[in-house]
From TrEMBL:
The protein's name: Zinc finger CHC2-type domain-containing protein
Organism: Bacteroides xylanisolvens
GO cellular component term of the entry, any: cytoplasm
GO molecular function: DNA binding; DNA-directed RNA polymerase activity; zinc ion binding
Domain Zinc finger CHC2-type: 52-100
């Protein structure tokens, strides 16, 4: 249940019908066999497996099962629409158009020659590999295993932000607070300096690329697999050089935080999208089902399709960036045939984290 102090708005854009794919068409496209889709696109599929186009494979790591696909190395996955969208860097609408053309599905009540069908360019696997290094899950897990929650982090999370210790522990949030040479020694011994440099855990001089004190924040997918690792700096800014507040390490890609909660939800469950991790943990502390985009300017569109089955709400920050983030997400979800509802904070609060802190019962 939404707090009575918060007002819920359903935002309606006049061009909704232009952005929307008919629901019965979406159902057909989402039910398509992903293996058959890959074959239609010219992929080399053998025994429901193929080599992943986004990284090098010693043996095929991308698997198909019914209307889903998933790479067991890089954690990309989704339905047939998402396969086309990611393979050819298309918009959602264009990916749907391609599938309709490939499988002779009538998209709208127009002559087929009046519908724009984008031309598919040949996939350049070499460019895909250059784009991003593969997330190093083993190094990330070792960092989690060799850290815990220190004093500065405890004061920040439980004292200042008034977050639930049970929630933080369940999310496996840890911290790195002192210049701990033991962590570096352990990682170097286990993985070697070159590998740690490649995944940006240490810099070129061999020092740990984690400022102190920092939170260590893991990201998991809906199957509870580790898919990313981020740090959040808790200290004061240095006058001589800038210290970024957030860093993605271990070659982590931009993903949605707390996707593991989806394994506990059924379709049409209420799901709240927070703008930032501390807002998300504050919502979880208050009993809301919540996930988080990293920031107003960082929206991981790859993960959005898996959210379209839920009843979605967002509590944007009280600034221009928050409003723009909501509008972008709203339009993206309209293309997935789902409306995102706006929950407005009272005017005296800048974000949900502040709302939670000032309304917490001691």
């Amino acid at each position: 249940m939404v707090d009575a102090k918060l007002r819920v708005f359903v935002i309606i854009f006049s061009n909704y019908s232009q952005l929307n794919i008919p629901q019965h068409i979406l159902r057909q496209l989402r039910d398509l066999s992903c293996e058959e889709t890959a074959k239609q696109l010219g992929m080399n599929v053998k025994r429901q497996m193929m080599s992943c186009p986004w990284h090098t494979d010693k043996k095929p790591s991308l698997g198909f099962k019914g209307n889903h696909w998933k790479c067991f190395s890089c954690d990309r996955g989704g339905d047939a629409i998402e396969l086309v969208r990611q393979l050819y860097s298309l918009s959602f609408i264009d990916a749907c158009s391609v599938l309709c053309e490939k499988f002779n599905i009538r998209l709208r009540d127009y002559p087929s020659d009046s519908i724009y069908i984008p031309k598919l360019k040949k996939i350049n696997k070499e460019n895909n590999l250059k784009e991003k290094e593969l997330f190093d899950r083993d190094v990330a897990q070792a960092i989690i295993d060799n850290t815990s929650l220190g004093l500065s982090a405890t004061r920040f999370l439980y004292g200042e932000r008034k977050l639930s210790s049970t929630i933080c522990e369940s999310l496996h949030i840890h911290s790195f607070e002192l210049e701990d040479t033991q962590l570096r020694t352990t990682l170097v011994k286990q993985f070697g300096l070159d590998r740690l440099k490649r995944c940006k855990v240490v810099n070129e001089r061999g020092y740990l690329n984690i400022n102190t004190p920092s939170l260590i924040i893991p990201y998991y997918d809906s199957y509870k697999h580790l898919i990313g690792l981020q740090t959040r700096y808790l200290g004061e800014q240095n006058k001589n050089y800038f210290i970024p507040r957030f860093k993605r390490i271990c070659n982590s890609n931009m993903r949605i935080f707390n996707m593991q909660i989806l394994s506990t939800l059924v379709p049409d469950s209420k799901l709240f999208i927070a703008e930032g991790i501390t807002d998300c943990v504050a919502m979880l502390t208050r009993g809301f089902n919540a996930i988080a985009i990293p920031s107003a300017s960082s929206i991981p569109t790859t993960d959005l399709t898996s959210l379209a089955k839920y009843d979605l709400y967002m509590i944007p920050d009280k600034d221009t960036s928050g409003q723009l983030a909501f509008e972008k997400l709203h339009r993206l979800f309209l293309r997935l045939d789902r409306r995102l509802k706006w929950i407005e904070l009272p005017s005296q609060y800048k974000d949900f984290a502040e709302y939670h802190m000032r309304n917490s019962v001691k």
